[in-house]
Amino acid sequence: MVDMNNRGTKLVIDENDIDKISNLPMDILDKIFKDMSFLELVKTCVLSKKWVHFWAMHPILVLDGDFFRKISGNIKLIEDGFSGLIDKILFQHVGSIVKFSLDLSTIYYNNNRDLGHWLICVTSKCVKELTLKNHKHKHYNLPFCVFDCPTLTYLDVTNFIVKLPSSKTLFPNLLELTLKSIKFRPTNANYVLNAPFLTSLTLISCNGVHWLTIFAPRIKFLTINDSHDICANFFVNFSNVRELLFREESYYEEGRFITWSHLLSLCPNLTRLVLNNSCIQVFNTLRERNIGEVIHYLEDPKCIDQQFEKLEFVELRKFEGTHFELIFLKKILGYSPSLSRIIVEPSDDIDVAEILDLYEELMMFLKASPTVKVVVAPHG
Predict the structure, then answer these.
(1) CA distances from residue 29 to 36, 90, 194, 337 in whole angstroms, order as listed
(2) Start and end of every F-box domain (predicted)?
(3) Most buried in the list 195, 218, 302, 330, measured by CB within 10 Å?
């Protein structure tokens, strides 16, 4: 091949030296292009004949909202057009799919059978990371094939109805599970989810979690937000949890309230605990008693018969200055010999003077840890 440089001199270039990237092994190419958007990946087909089918062999398929928004402006995808497009992408793809992400929020989609067909195709290709998002008001049923996929290590599902195919489900290799706005619809009295290698579990705004029993002996990170039908029995199998983020904004049903002292006794290996003020309120079994009697009970040293030996970090968010919150802080400081830092985030209704008074009061509490640092500061 003959080319001209910027000085007008002829240069002879070996064509084999031009495209060194194309000659790299596929596993190296996959790593190079793993963070490229799917639309950009498809555009590589115009580079040369060697790249025509590269996108179809790439093990990462991310069909997110950004992808659908961009292509909807270029082609007419109305009614079943989006479904046909996804069919075509999966039909043309060859080889394994390591990571698959699908966002149904921005597309016209009204056929749950299509979703089942797509996921059967994906799970049959040994998928390891699966993300399904749906921010519409309509809930879709999560296809059963997801629960029969033994290769999954990461599962993130948003806004689906879950009906487990059997009373017992095994995820033999699952490491991280995130469920958001999930509605569990039981066909049996109980669901048992066995995930022997699960290390991280996140439940956000889920309904019907009390039907679910999770066996995850290796779990270390547990996040629960606004899943208010969780009862104390849910935590029995999480004795090895190291970090717990527990936030509740909803009301508490009779018999489902979890006291912080009971929570800590069920999770004795906690090193990090983040709560908001609504998790510190008086529990239901005492709610009809005189408030003075309840406070007297909580202040009694005998109400806690153990040390929180491994607790190192505690954060209390949206502090409102209630007596119950102060008792919680007092007990944590007094029974946590390994505590290194405790952070109190006051609510917007607490003024500066009250924050200073709170700090002075906390500094007066008896501390089991001689090195603990107390921080009282607004969010951020």
Answers:
(1) 11, 20, 36, 51
(2) 18-71
(3) 195
